[in-house]
Design a protein that fits this description.
- By secondary structure, the protein is of the alpha+beta class.
- It folds into two domains: 3-115, Winged helix-like DNA-binding domain superfamily/Winged helix DNA-binding domain (Arc Repressor Mutant, subunit A, Orthogonal Bundle); 121-157, no CATH class.
- The chain contains seven helices and five strands, in the order ααβααββααββα.
- The protein has helices at 3-17, 21-32, 42-48, 56-68, 91-99, 110-115, 144-157, and strands at residues 39-41, 72-75, 84-87, 121-129, 132-139.
- The strands form two sheets. The protein has a three-stranded antiparallel beta sheet. A two-stranded antiparallel sheet has the order 4-5.
- A hairpin with a 2-residue loop joins β4 (121-129) and β5.
- The longest helix has 15 residues, at 3-17.
- The radius of gyration is 19 Å and the shape is elongated.
């Protein structure tokens, strides 16, 4: 990619960053991550940024802008699958570049990211106690290791009797 094209794309990315509080909050969040995600669900972003009052439509608009700039593909949720962004660039690098850092943006394989797409989920209702049900959405291909991690997480939530 030519320097002028890179500069033009970088300018557009920084314009997107400065376009509003929600875009800034999202890109700052991406820049501050320690693990690069290949797939970012809209609900994940909204949950992480709930204190910034980012609205769903705003998050989707930012992902569509990132898609327009060539950093990935926004996929609307259908048939039980969540709306998500599949990155073709490092989310961390994109966030840092948007903030003004001169770090190069690393590309990731869009095909590899698509292969790691979300599994089909199945909803379970577990009668926890009288009048209280726990609802879980669990991948249909849940592994033993993932089940053990989930059980360990639930144990951390328990209040000692």
């Amino acid at each position: 990619m030519a320097n002028s094209a890179l500069s033009s794309e970088l300018i557009k990315l920084r314009e997107a960053y400065n376009s509003g509080v929600s875009a800034k909050a999202m890109l700052d969040d991406f820049a501050g991550r320690t693990n690069a995600q290949r797939i970012t669900r809209v609900d994940q972003v909204l949950n992480r940024l709930r204190n910034a009052n980012v609205q769903r439509w705003e998050a989707i608009a930012v992902f569509r802008k990132l898609e327009e700039l060539g950093h990935g593909k926004f996929i609307e949720g259908r048939k039980g699958h969540p709306s998500r962004f599949v990155w073709s660039s490092s989310a961390i690098d994109v966030g840092k570049a948007a903030q003004g850092e001169t770090t190069p943006i690393t590309l990731v394989s869009l095909d590899a990211a698509a292969d790691e797409g979300p599994s089909e989920l199945r909803s379970y209702v577990f009668p926890l106690r009288s009048g209280t049900d726990a609802r879980l959405d669990i991948p249909t291909d849940l592994t033993t290791k993932e089940a053990e991690r989930l059980a360990a997480f639930l144990r951390t939530l328990a209040v000692p009797e």
